[in-house]
Amino acid sequence: MNRFYVVLGLVAVVAGVLIWKSSRSESATALSSPQGAAVTVTAADSAFHGYSTGSDSAAVEVVEYADFQCPHCAEFAVVQFPTIRDQLILSGRLRWRFRDFPVGFPWSRLSALAAQCAGEQGKFWEMSDALFQRQSDWGRSTKSPNGLFRDLARASGADVGKYDACMDSQRYAGRIEAAHQEGAARNVNGTPTFFVNGRLHEFPRGATSDGFQALVDSIAGKRQ
Amino acid sequence: MRHRQAIALLALVGFSISLYLWLYKIGIIGRLQCGTGSCEYVQTSRYGTLLGVPVAFYGVVAYAGLLVVALAGLQPGLLQRRWPTAVAAAIAAGGVLFTVYLTWIELFVLHAICRWCVGSGVVITLIAALAIPTALRRERGA
């Protein structure tokens, strides 16, 4: 009997140590760039609050924390977001802000960097759409999707020379890390996560265009 | 007695796996050690949460329950009682059904496999294989 409790105790200790070590090693991982070098977050990185689309006078602002490699984010982007854009953003009722929240897929940060480098040339939303729409082509790949991202950047209208220089220098790695830290501080623990006018909003049945329509109607209605 | 010890050990292993996945889900562990598997792909999917609660948390609760019941069943006063094995069998049966559902989601909806989930599936299946026949045998023998 005593031997059993010794074995049980040993299993508990080993499991505890492994879990503790995993939680400790994460801080180094979170601060890693796609190539694994340490990322420095500057004041300029922190001052950037993400690309936004929609009217500045819209009554409702949604901040989305998302990862380009997250399958649920892609599903939302491809299935729901076009309707939201057509019905709510283009009509001036909703402003949408995108924040990177790389959750740790192999190409999370590389894809975020690609979007930022296209964004530098005013092509963020085109690149964002392309990354999500083509996620099935690169999301499960074990080889670097750099070449495909480059093609997507070109198709989005970006100057490939400037895009390459941006990617090579990892110019916006700090910006991505700053967004990730901001999300973590706001208790984002999955993607996509939505904040509506600054408050975390959960969609128990899944985030849909109808859900956002109802939300905007509700908030805009209260303000009238 | 031996099968209750085995159930306790397995429950502790299952508890550790679920705890690891749950800590990842709530952001304390930011990257899962998964080799070439698709743990994060599965965990961050919509199926990583059920009724607003991370799926892994159900595992934490179930395995903790199994561990407590198995350890209770090893106490001298309860060694001859049937109910600890019956309770363990009931929890394990529910766990196996839930595991079948989650594995189906992984294979046919997400087309991705989380190795830790497979590990938990093996553990709960072993617990069920130990507890259910014993519970049924005792029930028939009673």
Strand order of the largest sheet of chain B: 1-2
What do we call the CATH homologous superfamily of chain A? Glutaredoxin
Which structural class should the secondary elements of chain A be placed in?
Answer: alpha+beta
CATH fold-level label of chain A: Glutaredoxin
Shape of chain B: elongated
Kindly name the structural category of chain B: mainly alpha
Q: Write the element-wise H/E pattern of chain B from the N-terminal end onward.
A: HHEEHHH
Q: Tell me the β content of chain B.
A: under 5%
Overall shape of chain A: it is globular
Helix-residue proportion of chain A: 55-70%
Largest sheet of chain A: 5 strands, mixed
What is the CATH domain class of chain A?
A: Alpha Beta
Distance between the termini of chain A: 72 Å
* Uncertain parts of chain B: none
Mean of residue pLDDT of chain B? 85
Please state how the strands of the largest beta sheet of chain A are arranged side by side: 1-3-2-4-5
Query: Distance between the terminal alpha carbons of chain B, to the nearest Å?
Result: 18 Å
Would you kindly provide a written description of the structure presented here, covering whatever features stand out?
The complex is a heterodimer of chains A (224) and B (142). Chain A has helices at residues 2-30, 43-47, 71-89, 108-119, 124-133, 135-138, 146-155, 160-169, 173-185, 209-223; strands at 51-53, 60-66, 94-100, 193-196, 199-201. With 224 residues, chain A is α+β, with helices and mostly antiparallel strands. Helices cover 57% and strands 11% of the residues of chain A. Chain A has one domain: Glutaredoxin. In chain A, helix 4 (108-119) packs antiparallel against helix 5 (124-133). In chain A, strands 1-3-2-4-5 form a five-stranded mixed beta sheet. With 142 residues, chain B is mainly α. Chain B has helices spanning 2-25, 39-43, 55-72, 83-110, 115-141; strands at residues 49-50, 53-54. In chain B, strands 1-2 form a two-stranded antiparallel ribbon. In chain B, helix 1 (2-25) runs antiparallel to helix 3, helix 1 runs antiparallel to helix 5 and helix 4 runs antiparallel to helix 5 (115-141). Chain B starts with a helix and ends with a helix. Classes of the chains: A alpha+beta (224), B mainly alpha (142). The interface between A and B is medium-sized, with 34 and 31 residues.
